């Protein structure tokens, strides 16, 4: 006697992964600059007077307001004198990168023959971290990812300016659908194959663009179009015999 079941399995990933064919998904990205500092701590008169400005963005989004470290006689002591807060933007495409731009100089008066490390204009951008989706994991429990950008300027003396930034992102819920929310699954036999009792069905191979970035997945089982029941956490693939 044979029992035939139509099996439907759904692969869920923490914070939802994405397949390479789907381009309608978008992200909400938050970022901030946490620290600005320079490399040469002194000038001819006293300690260094940094005039460092930094801004952040993604490839297709507007730049943030400027974060600044503009203080006198602080040497290499980092910090912010102007902090516009968290940069927050939605509708970020899955192929966009994280951008950081820096401009600045070390302020000297005429006694010291002018400013050091003068590059007081943006280069658009100074540094690119890489594509957000493939470089960084989505934010779990509000956690931040860190990226450090630098720019070295040699006009009037050498200074290397460092901008420490943080970013986090999650999916924009309205951009996700049942069709694109959880990766894909492939079978070596037909999805409606007849499986005899006691035989071992084909392993179901899950695929995901970010499959190597998530430790656990939840496989769920449905009989003949009914409700899904969790089979527990597992890996990227699933063996129906277990």
Question: DSSP helix count?
Answer: 1
CA distance, first residue to last residue? 22 Å
Instruction: Summarize the main sheet.
Output: 5 strands, antiparallel
Number of domains: 2
Helix content: under 10%
Describe this structure in words.
It is a single chain. The protein is an all-beta fold and 242 residues long. Mean pLDDT is 79; it is low at 1-23 and 209-213. It has two domains: 7-20 and 176-238, no CATH class; 26-174, Sandwich (Immunoglobulin-like), CATH 2.60.40. Helix content is 2%, strand content 42%. It has one helix at residues 132-135; strands at residues 7-13, 26-37, 50-58, 67-70, 87-93, 97-106, 116-119, 127-131, 145-153, 159-171, 184-186, 204-207, 217-223, 229-234, 237-238. The protein is built from one helix and 15 strands. Strand 9 and strand 10 (159-171) form a beta hairpin.
């Amino acid at each position: 006697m044979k029992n035939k079941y139509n099996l439907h399995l759904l692969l869920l990933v923490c914070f939802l992964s994405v397949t390479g064919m789907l381009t309608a998904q978008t992200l909400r990205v938050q970022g901030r600059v946490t620290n600005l500092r320079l490399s040469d701590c002194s000038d001819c008169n006293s300690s260094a007077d940094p005039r460092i400005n930094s801004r952040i963005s993604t490839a297709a989004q507007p730049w943030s307001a400027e974060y600044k470290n503009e203080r006198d006689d602080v040497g290499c002591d980092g910090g912010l004198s102007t902090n516009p807060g968290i940069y927050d933007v939605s509708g970020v495409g899955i192929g966009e990168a994280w951008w950081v731009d820096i401009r600045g100089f070390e302020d000297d008066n005429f006694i010291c023959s002018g400013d050091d490390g003068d590059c007081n204009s943006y280069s658009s951008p100074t540094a690119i971290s890489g594509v957000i989706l493939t470089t960084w994991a989505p934010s779990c429990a509000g956690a931040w990812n860190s990226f450090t950008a630098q720019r070295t300027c040699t006009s009037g003396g050498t200074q290397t300016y460092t901008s420490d930034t943080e970013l986090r992102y999650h999916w924009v819920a309205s951009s996700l659908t049942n069709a694109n929310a959880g990766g894909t699954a492939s079978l070596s036999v037909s999805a409606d194959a007849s499986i005899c009792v006691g035989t071992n069905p084909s392993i179901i191979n899950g695929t995901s663009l970010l499959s190597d970035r998530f430790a656990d997945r939840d496989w769920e089982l449905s009989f003949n179009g009914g409700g899904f029941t969790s089979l527990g956490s597992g890996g990227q693939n699933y063996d129906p015999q277990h």
